[in-house]
Write a structure and sequence with these properties.
Number of strands: 21
Oligomer: single chain
Structural class: alpha+beta
Radius of gyration: 30 Å
Largest sheet: 11 strands, mixed
Helix content: 25-40%
Number of helices: 12
Distance between the termini: 15 Å
C-alpha cells in the first residue's frame, strides 16, 4: 500500500470519525434507571417528588448577598439560600474581555442556579411554595489577604427550630461546602432531609460536526462511574437511583465547565431528575433524619462550580474528573493530556519523572509533543517506506503474473503470497503507522478540545486562542500545502485516472475540514506533516543508497 492510498484511508477515517461523533451526540441513548441494593440499616431517601405536589416556582428574592474569593464570586439569594450567579474570576467571558465568565446565572430566558434546602414532614423549603428568608450579618463577604477560608452563616428560626445554613469557601478552590446545622427546641421530634439540585433551562446539547460539545446532565454512582443524562433524557424519564453507599454525584456540564452536587457519605441518598415546564433539575436527596427535642443534627453537601480541572475535581469526589470526557479513546487521550501538561509546566510525570521547568506556552508544548510522538513512531515509518519500496520493486513481477494467470483470482492470490514470502515483503507493512496514527490523532483531538487549560491560550502572532479556529486560516492552508508536498514526494503505483483525481483532491478536502478545527489541533497536524517530510527525505536517501527507491 503506497502513501497515496494511506492518505485516502486517513481521509475516510477522518470523515467517518466526524460523522460518528455527530451521530453520537444526536443519538446518545437514555440510560435505564439502576435498581441498587439498599443497606439493611439505612432506609432509602424519598425522591424530591415525594415532598412536592406540585413543585412550585421559586418566589421573588428579598435580598441578595455577594461572596467573593480569589477564584469565585457568588450571588446568594437569602430566600432559600440558593446560589443564583457564579462568576469565575480567573476565566474571561470572551477572549481579551475584562468580564469574568459567568457559569451560574439567573437571567430572562436562561436560568442556571444551584438550589438546596430541607424537605420532609417538618421541612422548611418548597412546602406549599414557601422558602425560608434567612438572616445575614452583611450584604458582602470577601476573602481577605492571608485568609484561607470564608464562612457565611445564614440563620432562620421557626416553630422552636433554629436553622443555620453555612457556605464554606476556601482559597483557590471551586468546591463550596454547604452545611445545615439544626437545633430542635420545639418540644417534639422533627424529621427532614436535605436536597440539592442544579436547575437549568432545557437547551440543545450544542456543538457542531467539528466540535461536538455537550451541554446537559451527568451523574456518577457506585455502579456507573460516569454517565451523561441529557435534557431529552430528562424529558423522557425521571431518573431515580439509590446510592446505597452514598458515593456519587449529580452534575450539569458544558464545554470546559461543570457544576455538581456531591453528598457527603450519606448512604441511601437518592439521585434524581425532574422537569418543570422548561426547566430541568438534576440533584440529590439525602435520607431523612429525626431530631429529638433538645438535640441537633447536621446535613452537608458540596457544590462544585468551576472549570473542568481534573486534579482538583478528583480530590473533591471520586470520578468527578470524568466530566472531562475524552471519548472512547480516553486511555490514549488522558496520558497525552498529562504529557502535554508536563511539557507545558513541568512538574511530575506519571509519578516518577520530576522536572521543575516547562516551556510555558501551550503551542510550543503541542509542537514538542508532536516531535515526541513522531520520533517514537520513526521505526514504523521507516518500515512503512521500506515496505512500499519493496512493493514497487515487485510490480513488474506482479504484472507478469497477472498476464500469465488471467482471471483465476484464487491462484493469483496464492502465487502473490508465495512471492511476498520469497521476497520477504509484508504487503500490509505500510498500513501499521496509519493504524497507530489515527487513534493518536482522534485522542489528541479530544484531549485538546476538552482541555480548559487551552481556552484562550495564545501561541504567537495571530494565534491568540489555541482552542478556537485560526481566524485567518493560515495554519489550515499551510497544512494543506504540506500534505500536497508529501503527496508529490511519494511515488505511486496508482494508474487509474479516477483514483489519481481523488488523490489530487485529497489535500483540498483536508484543508476544508481543518478550517473549522481548533488551531491547536491544526498546529499538531501541520508539525506532524513537516516531520513526515523530513523523515521521508532521510528515508528515501537511505533507500536510494540501497537501490530500493525509484519513482
Amino acid at each position: 500500500m503506497d502513501s497515496q492510498r494511506n492518505i485516502l484511508l486517513i481521509a475516510l477515517a477522518l470523515v467517518s470519525f466526524l460523522l460518528f461523533q455527530q451521530w453520537q451526540v444526536a443519538k446518545n441513548p437514555a440510560p435505564q434507571p439502576v435498581e441498587q441494593a439498599q443497606s439493611s440499616s439505612t432506609a432509602p431517601a424519598p425522591s424530591l417528588a415525594d415532598d412536592l405536589d406540585p413543585a412550585p416556582a421559586q418566589k421573588a428574592s428579598a435580598k441578595t448577598i455577594t461572596v467573593a474569593t480569589d477564584v469565585l464570586t457568588l450571588s446568594i439569594d437569602t430566600v432559600g439560600g440558593d446560589v443564583i450567579t457564579a462568576d469565575l474570576n480567573q476565566y474571561s467571558a470572551e477572549l481579551n474581555s475584562a468580564d469574568s465568565f459567568v457559569l451560574l446565572k439567573n437571567e430572562p430566558g436562561h436560568q442556571f442556579i444551584a438550589q438546596s434546602g430541607l424537605v420532609g414532614p417538618q421541612g422548611i423549603d418548597l412546602s406549599g411554595g414557601n422558602r425560608p428568608a434567612y438572616q445575614v450579618s452583611s450584604d458582602s463577604y470577601i476573602l481577605a489577604d492571608g485568609q484561607d477560608e470564608l464562612r457565611i452563616p445564614m440563620t432562620y428560626q421557626a416553630n422552636g427550630l433554629e436553622y443555620t445554613k453555612t457556605f464554606v469557601l476556601k482559597r483557590g478552590s471551586y468546591a463550596v461546602n454547604v452545611e445545615y446545622d439544626v437545633k430542635n427546641n420545639s418540644g417534639n421530634n422533627a424529621t427532614f432531609g436535605m436536597y440539592a439540585h442544579l436547575r437549568q433551562n432545557l437547551m440543545d446539547d450544542g456543538g457542531s460536526i467539528t466540535m461536538p460539545t455537550y451541554r446537559g446532565g451527568a451523574y456518577s454512582t457506585e455502579d456507573t462511574r460516569y454517565k451523561k443524562y441529557s435534557f431529552d433524557d430528562m424529558q423522557d424519564r425521571n431518573l431515580s437511583i439509590n446510592l446505597s453507599n452514598g458515593q456519587g454525584w449529580a452534575a450539569m456540564i458544558q464545554h470546559y465547565f461543570a457544576s455538581a452536587w456531591i453528598p457527603r457519605d450519606e448512604p441511601g441518598t437518592n439521585l434524581y431528575t425532574r422537569v418543570i415546564g422548561n426547566l430541568g433539575d438534576i440533584g440529590i436527596r439525602m435520607p431523612n433524619k429525626t431530631i429529638a427535642n433538645g438535640d441537633s443534627a447536621t446535613f452537608q453537601a458540596t457544590l462544585w462550580v468551576g472549570p473542568k480541572l481534573q486534579d482538583q475535581m478528583a480530590e473533591v469526589a471520586p470520578n468527578l474528573e470524568l466530566v472531562v470526557d475524552y471519548g472512547w479513546l480516553w486511555f490514549i487521550a488522558k496520558p497525552l493530556h498529562t504529557f502535554l501538561s508536563f511539557i507545558q509546566s513541568g512538574g511530575q510525570l506519571f509519578g516518577f519523572i520530576d522536572f521543575p521547568f516547562g516551556v510555558g506556552n501551550w503551542g510550543l508544548s503541542i509542537m514538542l509533543l508532536t516531535f515526541c510522538i513522531r520520533g517514537a513512531m520513526y521505526p514504523l515509518t521507516k518500515a512503512q517506506y521500506t515496505s512500499m519500496a519493496k512493493m514497487r520493486m515487485l510490480q513488474p513481477k506482479l504484472q507478469a503474473m497477472r498476464e500469465r494467470i488471467g482471471d483465476d483470482r484464487q491462484r493469483m492470490s496464492q502465487e502473490m503470497m508465495e512471492l511476498y514470502k520469497k521476497e520477504k515483503v509484508n504487503p500490509l507493512g505500510g498500513c501499521l503507522p496509519l493504524i497507530l496514527q489515527m487513534p493518536i490523532f482522534i485522542a489528541l483531538y479530544w484531549a485538546l478540545m476538552e482541555s480548559v487549560e487551552l481556552r484562550h491560550s495564545p501561541f504567537f502572532g495571530w494565534i491568540t486562542d489555541l482552542s478556537a479556529q485560526d481566524p485567518y486560516y493560515i495554519l489550515p492552508l499551510l497544512m494543506g500545502v504540506s500534505m500536497f508536498m508529501i503527496q508529490k514526494m511519494s511515488p505511486t503505483t496508482v494508474t487509474d485516472p479516477m483514483q489519481q483525481k481523488i488523490m489530487t483532491f485529497m489535500p483540498v478536502m483536508f484543508t476544508f475540514f481543518f478550517l473549522f478545527f481548533p488551531s491547536g489541533l491544526v498546529l499538531y497536524w501541520l508539525v506532524s506533516n513537516v516531520v513526515t517530510l523530513i523523515q521521508q527525505t532521510l528515508i528515501y536517501k537511505s533507500l536510494e543508497k540501497k537501490g530500493l527507491h525509484s519513482k
